[in-house]
Inverse folding.
DNA sequence: GGAAGTTGTCGAAGCGCTTCGACTGTGACA
DNA sequence: TGTCACAGTCGAAGCGCTTCGACAACTTCC
């Protein structure tokens, strides 16, 4: 119907169900072929400034957005990253949230969206997403030493990034804080101040039982550092809840009165721990030195600001996404441990002469 | 090439990049038409038991999974729910995580996956997902009184469920705990015990400034209940961190010494609050009665187990998904406030005679 | 014993996009 | 002035699935 003037409602909010504008509509609107619109959008072929302007005007006028499914089908790329998150309401939920936030933000920067997968769904979720082509890459948090969710992906070359390091990472990209080095830093700090008896108060027993990668690596680093620095050390898992913490503290002070320094790897236990120590007459730092592994904001807002190795959730999350993107570009798989940093805030001092 | 025997590798893990089996492959394998395979999968037409068996065997042998993009394109349904989550590392992160977990699990029960959207992305994220047909429905957490993210959806009929209640929900489905009734329950509990001066220690100031729906409704309910029960009440926002909490407690005890009961709507403040009260000689419950609004596990693991109205994250999350599903079935939009329940654990007792 | 269902299957037409090859001008170069 | 290269555009062929209409082959029922 050339010659017939076309009326347009402008980019008025189109009612749902009302047919969304397609690339063909835009093409008609701009007087070009659909493929030309596609090339304007993707930039994969040169387009004259004039044509581009007309197409862009059409897009704006119609309020056009490419259909994600059609795009995925035609291009074999979904622009979606699958993220396997531990959703159990465990101890370190805020930390997990920081990771998720960092990953999501970074994905958006690369024009990717995030599909949420729970680790409780197990291996099934991963293969559903991969085999159904629902995502272009997968990031797995809270990796265990022996990682069952990934068996189906071994040898497939599908882009995977692990946050944490399993026993045999093999072909998978990994990124995480260097927890072993972090533990060493904590022990060193206390040892330098003159402490010779140091205990690790760790995560809940379940975390160790499950073989959670980072907890094991921190514990191993603690034991290794204690040995090499010649200090005596003990390790205690700490359950959730005020009374759990109190009972661990009671037992520790009773059975190992020589302990003057604590390394704490359990965000949730920090606050009740400080309180329990105070009640028992071992106020921090005078009666007990404490070095923690926790996010900065938690270390800062305790009753006593804590010397702590921070958990660089933002850096790790960002790096994880970058590793995924580099695999999508076909680059080689990397494994990367971020160096720890300890911030001194005053919760560790030389031990009382005894 | 009929007559040529076909060799199959079985459901061996197919290398990524190696062409995934399609519905046509399954059809060939089973000796039927592709549409027949589709009908076996969807159950939308009757299929003989024999044919079904052959098709299912083919699916198993090839390890076939329908391609999500193709399916979305052809059926105009993605089997994905968009979930807008507040990812700021705010106070009540564990609670948010509970909601997310409940929603995700319930979505999976309905064979839906969850696309994670951050509220920091604002309205853009919502329209990207809706207009790009990336999801069939959207659930929005952490709704504000004046909800800007949803303007683009008004009048479109796109399925939306809000967790929380904005000033003008209009056409949108809503579900949440009845925070006003919850506040009333807390005040009633203290009033029945004989308290006549009650303070609300609430969320961080930012939460109120932002107009967060649930915080405002709780505060309004508190004020209304205080008035109607004839008790005097005051309201204090409480910032994050130990020292913030201490300073609020100091000021409260100094400026309103008549207060004998506290209603606390701030999970993160609970532990430092109890500690601060003890330090000031107002041990709970003898020197100060406390009723909280928080998840059960938090109430239980405090130094003093708390009388608390629980936050039924699981129920709300599940209900939100159900409301989304019912909209997808074309049913009417509902708005629903869940009744609060108070569990007595001993942190509130009659005030000292004074 | 033919009309009128049922039941089970097939073929083909899309869904909205990307991408490949082909085609038309145009300017550069010899 | 003929030849090449290249910028700019188009048309058509899929991507893998769903779904509609058609159509055999059986049943049923008067």
């Amino acid at each position: 119907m050339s010659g017939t003037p076309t009326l347009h409602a402008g980019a008025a909010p189109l009612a749902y169900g009302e047919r969304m504008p397609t690339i063909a509509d835009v093409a008609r609107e701009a007087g070009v072929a659909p493929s030309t619109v596609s090339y304007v959008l993707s930039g994969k072929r040169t387009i004259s400034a004039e044509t581009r302007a007309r197409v862009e005007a059409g897009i704006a006028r119609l309020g056009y957005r490419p259909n994600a499914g059609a795009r995925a089908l035609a291009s074999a790329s979904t622009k979606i990253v699958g993220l396997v998150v531990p959703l159990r309401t465990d101890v370190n939920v805020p930390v997990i949230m920081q990771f998720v936030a960092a990953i999501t933000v970074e994905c958006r920067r690369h024009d990717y969206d995030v599909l949420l997968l729970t680790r409780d769904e197990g291996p099934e979720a991963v293969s559903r997403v991969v085999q159904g082509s629902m995502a272009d890459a997968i990031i797995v948090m809270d990796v265990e030493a022996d990682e069952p969710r990934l068996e189906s992906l071994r040898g497939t070359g599908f882009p995977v990034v692990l946050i944490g390091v399993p026993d045999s990472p093999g072909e998978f990209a990994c990124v995480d804080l260097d927890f072993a080095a972090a533990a060493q830093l904590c022990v060193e700090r206390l040892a330098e101040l003159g402490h010779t008896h140091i205990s690790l108060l760790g995560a809940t027993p379940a975390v160790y039982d499950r073989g959670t990668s980072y907890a094991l690596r921190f514990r191993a680093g603690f034991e290794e550092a204690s040995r090499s620095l010649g200090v005596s050390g003990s390790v205690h898992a700490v359950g959730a809840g005020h009374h759990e913490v109190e009972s661990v503290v009671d037992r520790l002070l009773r059975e190992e009165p020589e302990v003057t320094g604590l390394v704490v790897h359990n965000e949730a236990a920090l606050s009740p721990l400080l309180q329990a120590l105070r009640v028992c007459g071992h106020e921090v730092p005078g009666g007990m030195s404490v070095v923690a592994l926790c996010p900065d904001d938690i270390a800062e807002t305790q009753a006593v600001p804590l010397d702590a190795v921070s958990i660089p959730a933002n850096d790790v999350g960002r790096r994880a996404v970058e590793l995924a993107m580099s695999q999508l570009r076909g680059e080689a798989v990397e494994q990367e441990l971020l160096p720890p940093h300890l911030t001194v805030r005053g919760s560790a001092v030389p031990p009382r002469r005894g």
